Every structure is written in structure tokens, then in C-alpha cells.
């Protein structure tokens, strides 16, 4: 069963605009991670945020985490055509072990040139 | 360095056939995971190895699914008597330590059962 739910399911924006995706989850977590998946390259790890962190930056990516609301957001600034992909959030397992990741269904992001 | 590789990339099997999917993790990575991903969905956990020990196989959907990692490196996921509902992309991932958490994924094997 899937823990996370991404919102929106699909997002189409113009190149250069910012893209925001949200993730909600159900149980307490140790970490939350965001991954990107595009055809031919598989899943690529983007960023990890720990449960005691509220915000994290990596290049054009900004992730926030609100454990009281069990939600996270991923912001991609100044989007590029190469950002076209599906984005997934993943949380560690129900038993508190961080080896098993539980995934949402993903947000499909399309960047229009 | 080399990433996680999987073979074959595509497999078409007739219903009832057995298939074997291979995963070569990043050298030295302790943990190895198998996931199943249906079209338009996120990955679903199948099983987890720490070195050669299979510590969790709770996600395997039936006893037709079997995974092994006999020497703690290469892993094989075997599906016996394939059914149409087995059609999916099978992803392998590895991580450096025993508890991850960052996982490195292979490109996946797309299995189509006809």
C-alpha cells in the first residue's frame, strides 16, 4: 500500500516558471525523500529531509516539511525543459525502519518550452 | 563509477512461463531492494537484502515470487508461472549502508506477460 499522496497528479507550466508539488503521508516518519523519474533514466534521488528539519535547499530545489500536517512540498525554481519528469515522495517504513521506502503515486511535471 | 544495472531491460513472457530478472548493485553497497512499479504509480516494495540475508520479503505478492542474493552482490528476482497481473516494471535499488536511507536505482526491467 502507498503512504504518500502527491498533489497535483499532473502539472504543466512554462519554462522559467516555478513548479510546486505537494506530498502528504499517513504515519510518523524518520525521513522524507524526493525522487525524479524520467523515461530512460530511472529513479534519481533529489533531496532528503529529516523529521527534525523544516526546510532544505539544493540548487534550484527547495523542500519543506510540516510533520504536524504530515506534508511536504517540493519547489523547483526557474524550471527548465529537462525538469520534465515524474516526481515522487518517499517515506521510510511503518515500523520506523528507514530501509523500506513507501511511495506516493507521483506528480507528472511537464515544462513547456 | 558504475551505477545499478538491471537485465534484461525488456522481457516479454507468455503466461505460465518462468522469468529471471537480474540486478547488479553498486559495488560495496550493503543493502539491495526490489520494487514493482505499475504504470502511473509509485514503486511498491517487494523485498530487501542486507548483504546475502533476505531480511524482509513481506512485499512479495505470492509464493510465485522468489528473490536471492547468494554472495551479497548480484541479486535475481524470479517469477514462476507468470500471470498477466505480473506485468510491470521491476526496479532494483541499492544503498551504501544497512539503513540507507538514500537509494540508488537501476533503469528497471519492463515485464510484459501475454
Describe this protein's structure.
The complex is a heterodimer of chains A (113) and B (114). With 113 residues, chain A is mainly β. Chain A has one domain (5-112): Immunoglobulin-like. Chain A contains no helices and eleven strands. In chain A, a hairpin with a 2-residue loop joins β6 (55-58) and β7. Chain A is globular and about 40 Å long. Chain A starts with a strand and ends with a strand. In chain A, 37% of the residues are buried. The mean pLDDT of chain A is 89. Chain B is mostly beta strands and 114 residues long. Chain B has one domain (5-100): Immunoglobulin-like (Sandwich), CATH 2.60.40.10. Chain B is 0% helix and 48% strand. Chain B contains no helices and eleven strands. Chain A binds chain B through residues 2, 4, 30-31, 33, 35, 40-45, 48, 88, 90, 92-93, 97-106, and chain B through 31, 33, 40-45, 48, 50, 55-56, 91, 93, 95, 98-108.
Task: Sum up the structure in keywords.
heterodimer, A: 113 residues, mainly beta, Immunoglobulin-like, 6-stranded mixed sheet, 5-stranded antiparallel sheet, 11 strands, 0% helix, globular, B: 114 residues, 7-stranded mixed sheet, 4-stranded antiparallel sheet
